[in-house]
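haha ok so turns out i had the wrong file open the whole time. this is the CORRECT one, sorry everyone. sequence first:
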Amino acid sequence: MRKSTFGVWSHLSIRRQLLTSDSITVDYRVGIGALQQINRMVRSVMGKMRRALILYDPDISDDSLASVCEELRDLGIEPVSIKLSEGERIPTVAEASSVFESLAKAKINVDDAIIGYGDADLCSIVSFCAALWCGGTQALLIPTTLDAMVTAATSMRALDTAHAREMVFLQPSPALVLSDLAYVVGAPAESVRAGYVALLRSAIFGSRLSWERFGQQIRPILNRDEIAIADELISAQSSRLAVAKASNPSARHARSYGLTCARALRRCLGGDVADYALLAEGMRFEARLAHEVTQFDIDDVFAQDDYLEELGVAELRIDFDEAMFLEALTETSAAHSNRFLFALPRNPGTIRLTAVDTDVLERHVRAFLKSRSSGSVKG
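then structure:
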């Protein structure tokens, strides 16, 4: 073990996963103290560059930012750091445009780098801007939340426009992702629940084996066992990459599992409910649809319920009528596609776009809303 300028002792070896496909080449590193090795990793992965623009969250400490800058200067790289906006941030096209202006002022070119140091929203903005700047500039992502550690290498949160939510996105391909578990092991429970849901989703994207193994890992994950978290993060990268590079277009929509319902719930409930809670409800609803429509095993439906409950993701209380929810399902789906389809699992590892008969959908909506009305919800 050794202590670096970051002041964190590393007692878990840094794990590596190389993600490669026609559109993705990402070097993914995870472990306690991964950030301590940024100098060596940048030198070996990202090649020679002169400048780097660092976009960072307001909650990144001055000492941590200074340490990253010092490591870059040791490599002969001149860093320029910019703190993104305070408060809750939703990534937007307008914010991306501001980043482009910052890149121009910093004189970043195709041989330089853009570094994102923060949560999933910040990593999404950096991935988007890096892919477009000079036709493609290498990006280094340092995710500081568990959900960002799950998703940043293979997907981004779509950007909002002035009149539409989460409509602008692309397939990210950062050169390097450094997931330092020091940011996770001591984090408050509420701050990691989005990551728990992201890990669960990745497990069901993967295979029967990854799904059942995730259930066995829940208790160690909740205990913030670094090895268990690292194992699941590595497994998640494989599952998510397989979806991204699937030859079947329908299979590439597996990441939409739960999203159709979640978007409709957001329309009905407003912006006060956390995205991960909406997504969890979407998965619960769509799993039951899948049981009838694709014969998704009822044991897996109940296993998903149990996993979410163990992870502390409670069911929501819902008090709106069937017509409102059906309208929200139809309209939010139509904003993204002319086809009204759900990404439904047949088995863990097999999720496909599926049409649902109107009478079946209406019956499930009625049952869902009844089970979530006040007085019916657990917890």
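The longest strand covers residues 25-31.
again sry for the mixup
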